[in-house]
Amino acid sequence: ALAGLDPDARAVADELKSAIEEIHRVGLVTMVRRMRADDAARAALFDLVDDPTVHMLLSLHGIVRPDPVTHANQVLASVRPQLHSHGGDVTLARVEDGIAFVRLEGACNGCSMSSVTLRNLVEEALVQGVPSITAVEVLPNEPTPTLIPVESLRIGRDPASEGWVRVGPASGLAVDELSAVTLTAATGATVEVIVVNAGQRLSAYRNECAHEALPLNNAVLDLDSNTLTCPWHGFCYDATSGECLSAPGAQLEQLPLRVDDGDVWIRVTA
Ligand code: FES
């Protein structure tokens, strides 16, 4: 509306607006000072500052320093019970240039519909609840790789007696896909294995989903997110470590794999 006024009228309106804002600011500063000086009133003041509208009003007048991290954590605390009830959780990593960077855990972190809903809940809560946050970015979780002892990766003179089985030439494994193979150990035992070739990086897992031990032959390998999603009920795994992103603590059983003279070997027994 001010833009429609002629320059003189606009200058007067601007001056009037500034004067009113200054009266508000001085009045608020007086109230805050008096409340801070009184023990009982100080507690009420701190309660009031937690109120989003009061906090915004005081922030607008430069009376409280906006602290988006504290505020964002308060907002996340309010949605946490909902996340916990679905087996999920969230942690705030940092707030930078109005963007909240979060890490999602448990049921929040996966490929299912419910994880998408929980993610939306976190995003909405932060963007609507914290005035200085305009966007939310989900950081990838740092996978906890399965540790395979180095000794188990060495192939000795008699690989078969050590449980190693030759799979075939590495060049024969489809790139950016997973291959299901049946390997026969020297003991005669057969082991179903999947070999994931994500960007030429090979990982081998026993072909059993950590959920109900069903085969992963038709699992979906997503190279963008480096995840492997079980076709049966959607459990989602880190393709390189086998860590389950849908259920904390669950894990695909990773098998030692090495490439020797162009051939892929997998150790199926200890
Ligand atoms: S068997 Fe894989 S998600 Fe159920």
Task: Please provide a written account of the structure.
With 270 residues, the chain is of the alpha+beta class. The protein has three domains: 2-60; 68-139, Fe-S cluster assembly (FSCA) (GMP Synthetase, Chain A, domain 3, 2-Layer Sandwich); 150-267, Rieske [2Fe-2S] iron-sulphur domain (Rieske Iron-sulfur Protein). Helices cover 32% and strands 26% of the residues. It is built from five helices and 13 strands. It has helices at 7-37, 39-50, 52-60, 68-85, 113-129; strands at 88-96, 99-106, 135-139, 164-169, 177-184, 190-198, 201-206, 220-222, 227-229, 236-238, 254-255, 257-260, 263-267. The strands form four sheets. The protein has a four-stranded antiparallel sheet, with no helix packed on it. Strands 1-2-3 form a three-stranded mixed sheet, with helices on one face. Strands 4-13-12 form a three-stranded antiparallel sheet, with no helix packed on it. A hairpin with a 6-residue loop joins β9 (227-229) and β10. α1 crosses α2 (39-50) and α4 packs antiparallel against α5 (113-129). The radius of gyration is 29 Å and the shape is elongated. It starts with 6 loop residues before the first helix and ends with a strand. The model has no long low-confidence stretch (mean pLDDT 82).
